[in-house]
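Translate structure to sequence.
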């Protein structure tokens, strides 16, 4: 095998594997039974990707925490939300009616 090629990992049974070799500058990552061998990214590239992904997460977080999601109601389709200050109680809106319910043994029961 040429020096610049990585040898594949050999299964040893029962999910165990052994790496025969990974050339310098290469990185090995295992996802279940799949082994990926590739060039190791530079520290500068990793730093830049961490910065970009952190900025993206901040933007998503700001968007997801803003109130204002609009859900359209349909006839005979209930909408559920969590009751304010009562995490075990749901508010069910169905066909213009609003009820406070609790899920007991897989069945919704009206609370009040």
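Result:
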């Amino acid at each position: 095998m040429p020096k610049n090629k990585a040898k594949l990992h050999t299964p040893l049974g029962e999910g165990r594997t052994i790496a025969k070799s990974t050339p310098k500058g290469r990185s090995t990552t295992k996802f279940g039974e799949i082994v990926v061998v590739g060039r190791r990214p530079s520290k500068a590239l990793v730093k830049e990707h961490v910065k970009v992904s952190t900025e993206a997460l901040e933007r998503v977080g700001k968007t997801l925490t803003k109130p204002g999601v609009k859900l359209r109601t349909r006839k005979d389709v209930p909408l559920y939300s969590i009751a304010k200050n009562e995490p075990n109680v749901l508010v069910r809106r169905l066909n213009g009616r609003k009820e406070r319910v609790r899920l007991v043994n897989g069945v919704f029961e009206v609370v009040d």
